[in-house]
Amino acid sequence: QVRLVESGGGLVQAGGSLRLSCAASGRTFSSNTMGWFRQAPGKEREFVAAHGWRAGSVYYADYADSVKGRFTISRDNAKNTVYLQMNSLKPEDTAVYCCAAATDRRAVVSGTWDSWGQGTQVTVSS
Prior knowledge:
Helix content: under 10%
Number of strands: 11
Distance between the termini: 39 Å
Shape: globular
Low-confidence stretches: none
Largest sheet: 7 strands, mixed
Number of helices: 1
Strand content: over 45%
Order of helices and strands: EEEEEEEEEHEE
């Protein structure tokens, strides 16, 4: 398993930006599928974004429709860190954001995420 530690959450006004970081342990980080999920009070956990790779060492990024064009996921393999840049934040983005790691390249479809972080709170005020 990979140990994941998130940081960067906080309180921001609507329209503002935050960048979340997720530091991962383990030597297989570069080959893992990395994802961000969020859970708002009283709601189910939902997928936000993922960054993985396909055959041929081509990385891809995938996003929930609700964040497309506003959020960007990226990774720094040298730092074993995945980021989530969140722009144009809305009050409905308020949630605990968690990162996840998977050895399954198709984790976004299969749901087979192996490791989860504790999460970081993001609060967007109107």
